[in-house]
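== Polypeptide entry ==
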Amino acid sequence: MSKKNEINYVWQDRKRTFLGLPWSFTKYFLTDTKFITRTGFFNLDEDELDLYKVTDKKLKLPFWQRLVGCGTVIIYVRDTDTPEKEVHCIKHPRDFLAKLDKQINAERDRYNTRGRDLYSITGGAGGHGHHHDDMMDHPQHDDAPDCDCECHDQEE
């Protein structure tokens, strides 16, 4: 008999330490919709990232981790408290990336969004929140009460 609140994990692992052994109190979990990091022994801390907000991933394979079949994955997310998540020293990092990609794409299909959509909604790097070329119905004049960006003030 299964519990109603039981979470179905797609993947789980621990942070590896000396010689690739899982002697750590950091656990990583991948579900259908979230990536969860749990740290601690007596006091537990959990950080959750929504998969549809992932914008990029990076794989690092340092020499000592490669010797024991491990690697570090860096996940870049459109999240206020954790814009960059490092999944330190996990076994089979390429297999994890494949599972992560599969879940990310499934979530993006579910929400009908892509990484570039998240980038343009938030204004990108140093942007002001919208792009006039991308918004067909955006007024190009100063009489636009719903837009308070500086680009409208320059037309005067």
Remarks:
- Confidence is low (pLDDT under 50) at residues 125-145.
- The first strand starts at residue 11 and ends at 14.
- The domain at 1-115 is CATH 2.30.29.30 (PH-domain like).
- The CA atoms of residues 58 and 86 lie 9 Å apart.
